[in-house]
Amino acid sequence: MRTGQLHTAAAAAGLTALLALHLGAADAAGRGSMTARALVVSDQARRYLVLAYGSSPTEFMGCMIGQVHGPVVFVQRIAPADVDPVHSTRTHVLPRETCEEAGWKGTVGIIHSHPGGERCFYYFPGTQVASSDAESFGRQPYPVDAIMCGDSIVWISRDKTQRQVRLAAGPIPMAADQRPGNRVHTGSLLAVRGE
Q1: What distance in Å separates the CA atoms of residue 177 and residue 38, rounded to the nearest whole number?
Q2: pLDDT tens-digit profile of 131-158?
Q3: Which among 102, 70, 92, 78 is positioned nearest to 153, based on CA atoms?
Q4: How far are the Cα atoms of 47, 65, 87, 139, 183 from residue 142, in angstroms, in the given order?
Q5: What's the predicted TM-score (pTM) here?
Q6: Closest-CA residue to 12 (of 71, 52, 72)
Q7: What is the pLDDT of residues 37-94, one digit of tens each?
Q8: Residues 61 and 8: beta-carbon distance below 8 Å
Q9: Are 76 and 45 in contact, with CB atoms under 8 Å apart?
Q10: Is 22 exposed, middle or buried (0-12, 13-18, 19+ CB in 10 A)?
Q11: Which of 83, 147, 170, 181 has the highest Cβ tally under 10 A?
């Protein structure tokens, strides 16, 4: 069992290094250090997200704990945010305190869910009008923010480009980055996939 864990860790480290080389190292002194171009999510974080998404009819929120290496954000685990159950509904979630105030160190971003996989966007489709999720991200100090939508994570970095990471096993469909003003008719992942 330990050998499997070592192989997984080595594969994740190798992927992170490969992505950093492929995407180019960001200038540590400049704004590029806050502009993530890739999000790597560990198997442990993926399992937590799938369980949390499937077990809650309301939005959940978590602190993405990890590291930033140039343009690559590596999420090692998801720590639960301090959320009072009365402040978690099907369309809204509000934590009582920040991740750091809750005792979580190494936070690289916040993730919350959209039950049903609807409205998984940071800018209203076809516009440059920010959603409440984009507005909330603008007030945070982290390099990335993410929305759990079914079997995918929709995420955004400081360059305001929306990207997607698929959590399910199997081939990952390649999709172009979506900058503000993209054309998605209903704004749901189901519409993007044509379901």
Answers
A1: 11
A2: 999 999 999 999 999 999 988 999 999 9
A3: 78
A4: 23, 11, 22, 9, 27
A5: 0.70
A6: 72
A7: 999 999 999 999 998 888 888 788 899 999 999 999 999 999 988 777 777 777 778 7
A8: no
A9: yes
A10: exposed
A11: 147
